[in-house]
Amino acid sequence: MCLAIPMQVLEVNGLNARCEAKGIERTVSLFLLQHETVRPGDMLMIHVGYAIQKISLEEARSAWELYDEMLAAADAPAREADRA
Question: How confident is the model at residue 71 (pLDDT cuts 50, 70, 90)?
Fold first, then answer.
């Protein structure tokens, strides 16, 4: 399964941006958004190193809430095995 990850733009340098999510920084390509204005503070959906969409802060929060729930559900069997 492939997921896009919400990240916040820290710095823009031409068609690249330095972005951050949950303490992790990555340089991503803005090539697919080259006809949009991207500024520090903007939220982007990142997929395999490419920004694919600008999103609102609320959309980013909602996506992270869902991803956190998915991760917690995936970890539940391991936690149960540790208790046994």
Answer: confident
